[in-house]
Specification:
By secondary structure, the chain is low in regular secondary structure. The chain is built from two helices and no strands.
């Protein structure tokens, strides 16, 4: 295959298991194309339309997807490690068990998308819209979520150790059983967020209002205080927060 498909019409094409590493597909129409298992390593898909495309188990490591449209696409178990996906759209996309290690998702729209069990370690998710997205059991250690919109997102059982959540909108988010060890939640909106049985040890809450948090029952906040209390109340946490 040629290495240049700029603006090509590949709508609905069967490209399953194709070798497209390094190919220029910028601006191409890949709507409903079958790219499952395809090798798209370091391919240029900037501005491409991949609406409802099947990218199940595709290798997109190091690929360029800036401004691409991947709404309702199937990216289950896809490899997006270190891919550039700034200002892309993943609305209602499926990314379960995908590998997003070090991916750059800055300013992308991931609302209603599903990331369950995905690896987002070191991912750059600044200013991403994750509204009502499902991120259950993700691994996102050291990830950057600064100013991201996670309103009403499901982060149950998520591993967010040492992640940057500064200025995030977590209104109504489900963080039950999540691990936020040493995470930075400074200036975040936690209105009606549910932290039941979550790990909040070492978390930074500077400038955060905890009065409207939905649930902190069973949360582990500070080791030395938890040793003396079976269950921390919101009042306890407010006292601690005033010392930060």
């Amino acid at each position: 295959m040629t290495d240049n498909y700029i603006g090509a019409n590949l709508k609905g094409k069967n490209l399953r298991y194709s070798y497209l590493a390094g190919v220029n597909l910028s601006g191409a129409d890949l709507t409903e194309a079958d790219l499952s298992g395809a090798d798209l390593t370091e391919a240029d898909l900037s501005g491409a339309n991949l609406t409802r495309a099947d990218l199940n188990k595709a290798n997109l490591s190091g690929a360029i997807l800036n401004g691409a449209i991947l709404d309702k696409a199937n990216l289950i178990e896809a490899n997006l490690n270190y891919a550039e996906t700034q200002e892309a759209s993943f609305v209602y996309s499926l990314l379960n068990k995908s590998s997003l290690h070090g991916v750059n998702l800055v300013n992308s729209d991931c609302s209603y998308a599903t990331f369950n069990l995905a690896d987002m370690t070191y991912a750059n998710c600044r200013a991403v819209n994750f509204a009502k997205a499902s991120l259950q059991k993700i691994t996102a250690e050291y990830a950057m979520f600064g100013s991201a919109n996670l309103a009403f997102a499901c982060l149950e059982n998520a591993n967010l150790r040492r992640s940057n959540l500064i200025g995030c909108n977590l209104r109504g988010a489900n963080l039950v059983l999540s691990n936020l060890l040493d995470a930075d939640l400074s200036e975040a909106n936690l209105d009606y967020a549910d932290f039941k049985n979550s790990i909040l040890t070492g978390v930074i809450l500077a400038g955060v209002n905890l009065e409207t948090v939905k649930n902190l029952n069973g949360a582990t906040f500070l080791k030395e205080i938890c040793e003396e209390n079976d269950e921390l109340t919101i009042e306890d946490l407010l006292k601690i927060n005033n010392l930060l």
